[in-house]
Design a protein that fits this description.
By secondary structure, the protein is mainly alpha-helical. It has helices at about 5-25, 35-40, 45-55, 65-80, 85-100. The protein has two domains: about 1-30; about 35-100, no CATH class. α3 packs antiparallel against α4 (about 65-80) and α4 runs antiparallel to α5.
Length: about 100
């Protein structure tokens, strides 16, 4: 690896490390207001929606299959399951559905 590439990797690691550590250092021992806690609690589900929705719209084969997958993910997330269970559950439902279609 050249020195330029090593410097780029080191620089990128510093740039991503600092924003991740600043909240831990600056907010240590402090509690966020309940308003902000409620907003941050919904970030994983908003991210999941942002990842799934474009895939549903750009699905090329059978749009019904994509809509069923999105509905399954929505329903699983609505029950309060964490994001990993939501993704794996939706994949599982579509896998079983593809066996019968």
């Amino acid at each position: 690896m050249s020195m330029t590439m090593a410097a780029i990797v080191l620089g990128m690691s510093v740039v991503t490390y600092i924003p991740r550590m600043l909240p831990f250092v600056l907010l240590k021992g402090k509690e966020l207001p309940s308003f902000w806690q409620n907003i941050l609690r919904n970030v994983p589900y908003a991210t999941l929606g942002a990842l799934i929705f474009p895939g549903v719209l750009s699905f090329h084969e059978n749009i019904v299959f994509a809509l069923i997958g999105a509905a399954a993910a929505f329903l699983i997330a609505f029950t309060g399951a964490n994001i990993i269970i939501t993704v794996l559950g939706s994949i599982g439902i579509l896998t079983v559905l593809s066996l019968f279609m």
